[in-house]
Design goal:
The protein is an alpha/beta fold. The protein has two domains: about 150 residues, Rossmann fold, CATH 3.40.50; about 250 residues, Dihydrodipicolinate Reductase, domain 2 (2-Layer Sandwich). The protein has a nine-stranded mixed β-sheet with strand order 14-13-12-11-7-10-9-8-15. It has a six-stranded parallel β-sheet with strand order 3-2-1-4-5-6, with helices on both faces. Helix 2 links the parallel strand 1 and strand 2. Helix 2 packs across helix 3, helix 2 packs across helix 12 and helix 7 runs antiparallel to helix 13. About 40% of the residues are buried. It binds 6-O-phosphono-beta-D-glucopyranose. 6-O-phosphono-beta-D-glucopyranose (BG6) binds next to loops.
Amino acid sequence: MTQVERQYVKAAQATAPHVVVLFGAAGDLAKRKLLPGMANLVLSSLAPDIEIVGTSLEELDDDSYRAQAKAALDEFDRRHLSDSEWDDFASKLHYVPSSAGPDALARAVHEAEERLGPDAHRIHYLSVPPKAALAAVDTIAAARLVEGSRIIMEKPFGTDLASAVELNRRLHKTFTEDQIFRIDHFLGKEPAQNILAIRFGNGLFEPIWNRNFIQQIQIDVPETLGIEQRAAFYESTGAYRDMVVTHLFQILAFVAMEAPTALEPQAISEEKNKVFRSMTPIDPDNVVRGQYVGYKDIPGVSPESETETFVALKCFIDNWRWAGVPFYLRTGKKMAEGQRIISIAFKEPPRSMFPSGSGVGAKGPDHLTFDLADASKMSLSFYGKRPGPGMRLDKISMQFSMQEQANAGDVLEAYERLILDAMRGDHTLFTTAEGIERLWEVSQPLLDDPPPVRPYAVGSWGPNAIHQLIAPYAWRLPFERVWRESHH
Ligand code: BG6
C-alpha cells in the first residue's frame, strides 16, 4: 500500500471506542467547544462509541453535570440535537468532582471502560490553565490511568522558556512524548490545512513563495470579543501568550515552512521546527502592546494592570527563503472587526510606463489573502484595467470560498477534527515540545523587557503606533473591499 492509500484506509476506519477523561469539565472551553464537538463526533458516527468522565473543582454529580452540558449545547452547538440525540449523548456523560479523589475517578473511568468493552481506549483532555496542568497529571498518575492512554494538553504550555522546559520535564516523567498531544486549535481549522494544500498541491505558488517575490506577510487576527468571564486567566496571560506564541506562530510556520518529505507528523514537525529555529529573537522595539480603554474596570482585573489585550509585532525568519522579508503579526480584543487573515504582499514592479494618475499601485501591492474564518476564503487581488477609454487601473480580485465546494458540509470544527485525530493517534496537526520551547526562547527578549502598554479605543484597530511599526507598508485590514458573498 502506498502512503496515500494508507491514509485513506486510516480515515475510513471507524474510531475505536474511547473513554474521554475531561479535566476542566465545567470550564469555558468545555462548554463552548469540547462538549458540542464530542456530541457532533458521536452523532456524525466519526466517533460513535465514547463515554465522557468529566472532572473539575465544581461539586456536581452526573445529573447536575448533564444539566450544565445541556445548557452549554443549547447555547453553543451549531446543530440542534433532537431529544433522542440528547438522551443518547447525556447517557454518555459522567462526573466526578476532584474532591472525590483519584480512586473515585479511576472507578468511574473503569466502569465506563467496561460499558465500552475490551477495545476501549482512554484519552485524557486537560482543559485547565497552565498552573493546574501538572496537578491534573499527578491525579492521572495517582489514579493509575497513565498506561496505554493518551493525553491532550491545552495551551499555553508554560509562560516562558524556563516554565515550558520544566513543564515538559515533569510531563515526561509520567507520559512519553508519543502519548502527548499538544493542541493548538488554529491548526485544526480547515483553512489552515488548506494553506498546505494550496502551497504544495499546485505549481503556481511555490516558485514565487520566497524573498525574491514577496514583499511582506501579515497574519492579522483582530477580535471583537472581550475578556468576558476569563479575567483571572487573561490577567496573567495577555495577548502575546494567549495568541501569538501559540496560534499565530503556528500559522506562520505553515506559511513559511519548506515542503515536508511527507504529510506525516515527523516530517511536518521537522520543517516547522526549522522555521522556529530560523526566527530571530523578538526585538521589543518591533512590538506594540496595547490595552483597550475600560479593561481595568473589569472585575478581577487590577486597576494597575499592565496586561496587553493587543499586540502587534514585526519578526523575521533568517533563512534562505525569507531573509529580509518582514512578517507582521497583530491580534487583540475589542477591536473594530473580527477577522483571521494571512495576507501575502508581492513585490511591486517598476510600473514606469503607466501615465500619472492611472491608479496603479494606489491601493498597495497585489496580494494573496487566506481567510481562516470558517467559510475558508482565499482571494488574489491585483490591478486590472477599468473598462472604458484611456488607461485607468483599479484593484480587482478573484475570490474563492470553501462554501462553493460540494463537500462544504463535511467540514469539522477545529476541536472536533483534533480530538478525532488524537483518538486515532495522529500527531500531524499537533505541536511538539521542541517547537514550543524554541518559540519561548525567541520570545524571551520581549518577555524580559516589554514595551509599555498603550491605550486604544474599543472598536479601533489598536494604538496609533501600529502604523509606524509597519511603515513604509500598510495594514491590509480593514479591507478595501468586502468579500463577495457566494450564492450557493
Ligand atoms: C483561544 C484564545 O485560544 O483562541 C482566545 O484563548 C481567542 O482568547 C480564541 O479568542 C480565538 O479562537 P477562534 O477559533 O475563535 O479564532
